[in-house]
Design brief:
Blueprint (H helix, E strand, L loop, with lengths): L1 E2 L14 E5 L4 E5 L3 E6 L7 E3 L10 E6 L5 E6 L6 E7 L2 E8 L13 E11 L1 E8 L2 H4 L3 E6 L2 E6 L3 E5 L5 E3 L2 E8 L4 E9 L11 H19 L9 H13 L1 E2 L4 E2 L22 E2 L3 H10 L3 H18 L9 E2 L10 E2 L13 E2 L11 H15 L5 H17 L18 H21 L5 H18 L1 E2 L4 E2 L26 H10 L9 E2 L2 E2 L17 E2 H14 L5 H14 L11 E2 L5 E2 L5 H18 L2
Antiparallel strand pairs: 1-7, 2-3, 3-4, 4-5, 4-6, 6-11, 7-8, 8-9, 9-10, 10-17, 11-16, 12-13, 13-14, 14-17, 15-16, 18-19, 20-21, 22-23, 24-25, 26-27, 28-29, 29-30
Helix pairs in contact: 3-13, 4-5, 4-6, 4-13, 5-6, 5-7, 6-8, 7-8, 8-9, 11-12, 11-13, 12-13
């Protein structure tokens, strides 16, 4: 149970207090107070229409909540779906709001994005407060509010919204508001829809049509989840992760956004605030592996199709692959700051776009070619055109792997010789060699093998610290980095190799002892030892904790006692999700969610860790 705040208009809710609804084009974040505080229409990377999560006063919101001072709330998903229910309990009775977005093909108007909010009195007679205050273009654009017999329309120069309802909404500044009293068993429905500027308001939904839309949406998610082949110990958590990942998929292209939000801080009040509404090449192998392992072959196929199309476009150029792309394959992701927004709890600057898009990050070639390798192995054999792109990229890696880069963590403190970058260059060449042998594909095998062996030797020679008895963050350094936990996962090193076991032991130490672990949660690196070009602190990285689980799971083949450690850390980590099973990028020192939310990478890592831990436990 969560107590709703008295002053909803001024307070920022904890990041973990939100649920997610969506239609594979965009999403909305719905707080436990019944408020939509983040939504971009008509797609993930469009300007926001509601952004109270980034500015409590001017960001815009759409709230439906029970009136009263002593109100508690409970929020949950309708089982095995992405239909969100927020239930309000008070002395007067019980009311609830069912929120969902009809998916394409199931909506009455599939070309429009819709948020349907079904409001019901479950027990007693209850009064709801309805407020809708859009703020177009990240609260930079004005709009006109027009009341009609069917609700209200909000018209801006570039965008417009229709709010269809039978409720008599009154003007409230640039928005609308009303109280609506319902007796037990009564209900009313609000439909928010994006429309063209100047277009009339959309029709309201009859109770029968609203119920049909609800049932159709429930059935869609049940049918989709029915493809899942995972039947292990942590089915509920894996199911929720899969459902969240599906919501982060942009259906027209198959791209998956890293997260649907921007500028939620890694350090409240700090500057580590980034826009994650794009597709990172780095996520490729993890996405393919997670989807294929639990039966979602269509999603894997669509994502690899998006990636291979990018490969063929970029292979025609002379430069390296970009690290991230727009959800439509766009390449210009120019970063800018929105100085008129105060940021989540004063965390500035608020950024849109991502300045890291043109960084050199050598590791992306390993993740990309590993994804192509996995899809060839478990999905569809590689095409001639894709193999041509792979050859181009691997030849480029062989020429450039010794360069410095910004690394997996996209540091802004200058390029370095990062061990993880070299590791994934090794993966790129190794997987290409495997593909060539398996499919008898033409390749300069001798050149590639010589390059692969040279990278291996460099990592073992320069990436290992005899003093720390661990693989390090940079060549010749002594700082630890959690990304090296990937080594046994990508088959660079045997899980029983002494160097890996010593690296695990070093990582498992607390930070004041030189390690990266705080009571089972893993920091990506020690900020006191790494100059990443940014001020401030950060939390533990959730994906790194799941990587530790996988590394321990694999090491247990040689040292069986590590398997129980892996399981305990994994099950402890499950307790750091929010009330709906969703994770942000990081976990703070008080157990709070930090960073953009929810984060795809974290949920991908959870699925992979659960799958491999289950398999090992079952022998």
């Amino acid at each position: 149970m969560m107590t709703a705040p008295r002053d909803r208009g001024a307070a920022y809710r904890p990041i973990e207090d939100y649920g997610l609804i969506g239609d594979m084009h965009t999403v909305a974040l719905v707080g436990t107070d019944g408020s939509v505080d983040w939504c971009c229409l008509p797609r993930f990377d469009a300007p926001s229409v509601f952004a109270r999560i980034l500015d409590a006063e001017q960001g815009g919101h759409f709230q439906v909540a029970l009136r009263g001072d002593d109100v508690t709330t409970k929020q949950f998903y309708w089982p095995e779906t992405n239909v969100l229910v927020t239930r309000f309990l008070s002395d007067d009775g019980v009311g609830e709001v069912r929120d969902f977005m009809p998916v394409a093909g199931r909506a009455e108007d599939p070309d429009r994005r819709q948020i349907i909010r079904m409001v019901r009195a479950v027990r007693g007679t209850v009064t709801f407060r309805v407020e809708c205050h859009p703020a177009f273009d990240y609260a930079r654009a004005d709009h006109e509010t027009v009341r009609t017999e069917r609700g209200v329309c909000f018209h801006g120069d570039e965008q417009a919204l229709s709010l269809a309802t039978e409720i008599d909404l009154a003007r409230d500044g640039d928005g609308v508001a009303a109280d609506v009293t319902l007796r037990e068993g009564e209900s009313t429905t609000l439909v928010l829809r994006d429309i063209e500027p100047g277009e009339g308001c959309a029709p309201t939904l009859s109770p029968e049509a609203a119920e049909r839309a609800f049932r159709d949406t429930v059935q869609f998610w049940r049918d989709w989840l029915g493809q899942c082949t995972y039947t292990g110990r942590w089915r509920e958590e894996v199911y929720r992760s899969a459902l969240a990942l599906k919501l982060l998929t942009y259906e027209p292209t198959g791209a998956i956004v890293a997260a649907p939000t921007c500028s939620l801080p890694e350090d409240v009040g700090g500057v580590r605030n980034w826009d994650y509404r794009y597709t990172w090449i780095r996520d490729a192998a993890f996405t393919l592996y997670a989807f294929l392992r639990i039966g979602f072959t269509e999603e894997a196929r669509d994502f690899i199709g998006f990636l291979t199309n990018l490969c063929q476009l970029d292979a025609a150029g002379e430069g390296p692959l970009q690290i991230m792309y727009g959800i439509d394959g766009g390449t210009e992701l120019t970063e800018q700051t929105l100085d008129h927004l105060e940021g989540y709890r004063g965390s500035t600057p608020v950024r849109i776009g991502n300045g890291a898009y043109d960084q050199l990050q050598l590791d992306i070639y390993g993740e990309l070619i590993d994804a192509i390798y996995l899809h060839d192995k478990y999905g569809v054999p590689i095409s001639y055109e894709t193999w041509g792109s792979v050859r181009h990229f691997v030849n480029w890696v062989c020429e450039h792997w010794q360069r410095t880069d910004q690394g997996v963590w996209e540091v802004r403190g200058g390029p370095q010789q990062f061990v993880y970058s070299k590791l994934m260059c090794w993966v790129a060449v190794d997987r290409a060699l495997r593909l060539s042998r398996k499919r008898s594909l033409p390749a300069p095998a001798a050149k590639w093998q010589q390059c692969r062996d040279a990278i291996y030797g460099a990592i073992m020679d320069k990436g290992w610290s005899a003093d720390r008895k661990a693989f390090t963050q940079q060549f010749g350094g002594d700082t630890l980095d959690a990304s090296n936990l990937i080594m046994p996962l990508v088959r660079f090193i045997s899980p029983g190799d002494e160097r890996l076991l010593q690296t695990l032991d070093a990582t498992l130490q607390s930070r004041d002892q030189g390690g990266l672990v705080s009571n089972g949660l893993v920091y990506r690196y020690n900020l006191g030892e790494t100059h990443d070009g940014l001020e401030g602190e950060e939390g533990t990285f959730n994906i790194c904790t799941f990587w530790l689980v996988e590394a321990l799971t694999r090491a247990s083949r040689i040292e069986p006692a590590r398997l129980e450690d892996a399981r305990l850390i994994f099950e402890q980590m499950l307790g750091y999700s929010n009330h709906l099973g969703l994770y942000a990028e990081e976990t703070g020192t008080h157990g709070e969610a930090l960073g953009n939310f929810p984060q795809a990478f974290t949920h991908l890592a959870l699925i992979s860790a659960a799958y491999n831990l289950d398999r090992t436990l079952d022998g």
